[in-house]
UniProtKB/TrEMBL annotation:
Protein name per the record: Crp/Fnr family transcriptional regulator
GO MF entries: DNA binding; DNA-binding transcription factor activity
Residue span, Cyclic nucleotide-binding domain: 22-124
Keyword DNA-binding on entry: yes
Amino acid sequence: MHTPPAVSRRSTPTIRLDSFPLFESLPPDVLSHIERHATLISGKQTRLLFLRGDPENFIGVVLQGNAYHTLQEPDGHEVIIDSSGPGDIVGESALLHPGRRTCTAQLSRDCRLLLLHRQHFHPLQAEPLLMARVQEQLCKRLQRVSNFVETVCLYRLEARLARHLLMEIDQRGRAGPGGPILPMTVNQTVLAAMLNASRPRLNAQLKQWQRAGLIQLSRHALQVCDPSRLQEIARQN
């Protein structure tokens, strides 16, 4: 069983919890309870938050960066099945029906996260608005995992990559003169794990699309030059 890092003193987060939709308009005493009893940790301190099979005895509130939810294949290959970003709770099922972790959670190096243990759950569980939002977050996570399983099982890498890019552009993209632009916030190793592919195969696919004029790839961004063609690829299995 993995034990999260122990920190001798608590640190007050510089980011206000009520700036995130999950915590917006909650009673001040609930927010102060979290800040008073939570421990601030970072991806620089630890990359592993919990392991599959660990007891669900704490939650994490992501302030910055990402927590990746992973499974390990028999050959040791890790697959990222979902991620939690700023404002999300990691391990939210511990607030609803605690059991054992169903996946492993790893932190990005730039992640900052508030760790809150089970003995401090009651004020959160007694707040109906927060618990309704937690249930909504869990339902959305289950839908994303279901979509991931469908994509990995039914689509080739080319279509998986196209579907992923279209979803990311819809959520975080911006308009550009030559087509929508997507900030590249993860490296190719992480992206390959999200698509259940090897990094060399992913890199080869991106280079092929770049040579064909479908995308333009830079260090920090990806521009889709032909969105309609990308949508066609996404529909191919």
